[in-house]
Amino acid sequence: MAQKILAGRVADPALGGELVQAKVDQIVLARSPLRALAEAQAAGLKKTNVEVAIAYDGRCVPTTYGPVAFGAGTAGDDAGDVAAPSDLVAHGVLVARPGMGYPAPVHLERFASPARLCVTDEPRLAGVGGIGMLAVVVSPAQLGQALVTGSVTLRPPRSVQVLLSGRTRPFVCARDVALELVRRGLGDIVRRVEESKRAPVVVEFAGPSVRLLSVSERAVLAALAPLLGAAGALFVSDERTEVFLRDQRRSKAHRALVPDAGAPCDDVLNVDLGAVDPLVLDETGQVRAVRELAGKRVTQVLLGGDGGATLRDLFAAAALLKSKRVPSHLDLLLAVPSRQTLEVLSAAGALTDLIATGARLVEPDARVMDGTMYPPPSTGGVGMRTCDPEPRPPGEARAIVASAETLACAVATGEIGDPRSFKRPVRVTVPRTLPTDDVLVARERRTSEPKATPMRPLAKTEAPAWKGALSLELVEAAAFVAGEAKVNGKPASFGVVCASLDDVRQIAVRAADVAPMVRAVIAPHIPSATVALLSAVGIAAMRVDAAAMKSLKGQRVLSLPPPSQWGDQPTSVPVGGAKVALTWLALGAERAWVTRTGGSEPVRIA
What is the percent of the chain with per-residue pLDDT over 70, rounded to a whole number? Predict the structure, then answer.
């Protein structure tokens, strides 16, 4: 299905070649909207002409008194060079103001459309694959080019298929099914295909049970993509999708999307939904049955968030907790995914039930998701939440991820327990009449209104190009993220060694910020989509064998030969008194972005 989406948007429908130039339907800016706008301005942006371009302002709670300009404090934005929403609107970019909700669920409800291609800087937007839209994470420079030209350079993807059969049992939610996929090794399958094909992998869900899942439940499964190292995830667009769009009053956006009969895929995983039990993702990142952690004291519960609890799940939690009270040692935080969901819960009385239980309603601030606000407790008990975890440095407290009904059991008892102890499952009827007034979306001004004053161009610096031999200070990802990477008290050029996919994800999220000093990322596995993202900001992505990682332990300096000496095969590189074989994973134009020897996309840092 991913290939079908791209085939209609490129010059060569056969998707031949290492890279293709694809037409973009939607652009979503969430992490660094002003940086992408600066890139677009530098490329001559007047007004974008894509189907939808929208920026989500995720900062609801200011850290200082007084008004906060759009984007202030967002990763990658310079607080001294901020823009008002009208600056973006003047270029044809919609702005979702604070309080609209988290980008992924809001976009799913109000803008996502089947069989479309979306580019974004927000990995968590993978959830829109539940409606049949392919969302790909790219660099700010590529987003700027997409705003101007309506196209972007991508690697053609490969597909891994997940076939769903059977029917879930009571107290088993979409979150449990997602965790079952992790336990069944879907991430290992994705990695194996990535390394053998040197192409990004899109997880495609099919099978007879797909039609039993609502679009919101499909979105929970699609949101797994970043955690698995996949470039995206897709569901078919069928009658359930059409009903969802009709309820959102967006029927015209529907397009059918199904795989062709006999369409090839690189691997298949079969999952029987009837065999799935309530599961948790523990603090170490391992999937375990709930009963294995039963009795563990819980001191914080975050219900909701941007991708782990559907509207049906929130109704179920409210029903299970009705007439109950939060234990004195536990904080129940309710992070409603979107403004629409908040209105529906309120109108149906479920919000009142949750508040009566003792829930604290928190604003949909982006920092709730990354743990900056309401971090998991480090002592005295564990924290639980429904949303997928952000990568966190080793040593930091991590929350346990579970379904909304498992969290409801924890709230009722004060400790982890099997939700089947409630014995009688709740029957939930989700309202079909949904509020669709986008009052918090800033759109283009009417001609009778005064025009906004054009914003001054944002200051820009260029990431250094890799021209000749390069000597780098080696540092582990955990130390670099913690800010301990200094040489004689001064910043230097670094090669960051990542031992896990979580380490790679941490650097990728900060790629545009750290590009001036990080010249290379070295890891046993770097997803192809991440290779492209790093290359687009001037960072070389290097693969090292897991066995050779030991040779890098404790070493301080890595010497990279000039780019002209690198091929597609591993290159022997001196490190300390030994040599290590590294493979430069970038292809074609991606190498040109790093070396600045050509290529269609500039490497600039706003």
Answer: 90
**Helices within 61-211 (DSSP H only):** 85-89, 103-110, 140-149, 174-183, 186-197
pLDDT single digits (tens) 400-422: 999 999 999 999 999 999 999 99
pLDDT digits (tens, 9 = 90+) for 127-175: 999 999 999 999 998 999 999 999 999 999 999 999 999 999 999 999 9
Q: What are the residue boundaries of the structural domains of the chain, listed by start?
A: 279-439, 461-605
The reply to whether CATH 3.20.19.10 applies to domain 461-605 is yes
Alpha carbon 558 to its chain centroid, in Å, reads 31
Where does 279-439 sit in CATH, by number? 3.30.499.10
Report DSSP state, residue 61: S
Nearest alpha-carbon partner for 38 in 499, 381, 460, 384: 460
Q: How many CB atoms lie within 10 A of CB 271?
A: 20
Q: In degrees rounded to 5, what are phi and psi of residue 459?
A: -65, 140
Q: Which tokens go with 348?
A: 């149906």
Tell me what percent of the residues of the chain surpass a pLDDT of 90: 58
Query: To which H or E segment does residue 201 belong?
Result: strand 201-206
Burial category of 285 from C-beta neighbours within 10 Å (exposed 0-12, middle 13-18, buried 19 and up):
middle
> What phi and psi values does residue 494 have, to the nearest 5 degrees?
-115, 150
What's the rounded Cα separation, in Å, for the pair 311 and 441? 21
**Residue 4 exposed, middle or buried by CB count within 10 Å (0-12, 13-18, 19+):** middle
- Counted residue by residue, the chain has a size of 606
Residue 146 to residue 27: CA distance in whole angstroms = 8
Give the sheet arrangement for strand 201-206, strand by strand.
Answer: 232-235, 201-206, 158-165, 267-272
DSSP string, 294-313: TT-BEEEEEEE-SSS--HHH
Total-model pTM: 0.91
Query: String of b and e for 164-180 (b: at least 16 CB within 10 Å)?
Result: beeebeebbbbbbbbbb
What is the three-class DSSP state of 446? coil
Q: How far apart are CA 217 and CA 309, in angstroms?
A: 8
Average pLDDT over residues 53-81: 60
φ, ψ (nearest 5 deg) of residue 41: -60, -40
Instruction: Find the helix or strand (DSSP H, E) in which 340 lies.
Output: helix 339-348
Please name every residue paired with 268 in a beta bridge, in sequence order, or none if there are none: 161
Q: Are 151 and 135 in contact (CB under 8 A)?
A: no
Taking a C-beta distance cutoff of 8 angstroms, is the pair 375, 394 a contact?
no
Q: What is the DSSP string of 173-185?
A: -HHHHHHHHHHTT
SS3 190: helix
Judge whether residue 485 has pLDDT over 80. no
Cβ within 8 Å of residue 589, ≥6 positions away? 19, 153, 598, 599, 600, 601
Tokens 């001294």 sit on residue: 80
Give CA–CA dist 186/222, Å, rounded. Answer: 13
CB atoms within 10 A of CB 450: 7
**Alpha helices (runs of H) in 451-602, residue ranges in sequence order:** 477-481, 501-509, 511-514, 528-536, 549-552, 589-595
Q: Tell me the backbone φ, ψ of residue 164, rounded to 5 degrees.
A: -100, 130
β 360-361/331-335 pair status: parallel
